[in-house]
Every structure is written in structure tokens, then in C-alpha cells.
Amino acid sequence: MEDLILENILKSYNELILELEEKNNINKRFVEFANQHHDDPKVIEMMASARENLQKLKLAIIERQDLIDKYLGNYNGRTF
What is the rounded CA–CA span in Å between residue 22 and residue 9? Predict the structure, then answer.
């Protein structure tokens, strides 16, 4: 049962990493575009939104790491 829980956590974490990599690639292209149009209010708004979404993604990754650390700590009989 615990192995299934860990497997699901790791699967979720790996999916999140793939999503982050995809968003990072999109973000790189957008930053190139934004550098050319940095004075456009719409671009500024989009950059703020992109930053907010990346912050949410970072928090989700940290939460997954905490779950994995907690599980590994319980599994090994010690706390990280």
C-alpha cells in the first residue's frame, strides 16, 4: 500500500516536472517576444500573469517534495 502511495506521488511529481519544462520553454519564447515589445501594456500584464503561474508551479513542486520527504522519513523510520 505504501509503495503505491509513493508511486503515485512520484508520478505526480514527474508529471509536474514535465509541465514545468514545457512552461519554461514557452516562457523563454515569450520573454524573447516581450523584450521586443516591453512597452506594450498587454505584454506587461501577460508577464505578470506568467510570473504568478510560475510561482504557483514552484509551490506545487515544493509541496510534492515535502510529501516525498515525509514519506521517505516515515518509511526509513526517521524524519528529514
Answer: 20
Residues sharing a CB contact under 8 Å with residue 79, sequence separation 6 or more, in sequence order: 73
Q: How many residues are present in the chain?
A: 80
Cα atoms in the 13 Å half-sphere on the side-chain side of 47: 16
3-state secondary structure of 23: helix
pLDDT tens, position by position, 41-58: 888 888 888 888 878 878
Domain boundaries, the chain: 51-80
Helices (H), the chain: 2-36, 41-75
3-state secondary structure of 11: helix
pLDDT tens-place string over residues 13-39 = 788 778 878 877 877 887 788 788 878
Q: What's the pTM value of the predicted model, to 2 decimals?
A: 0.51
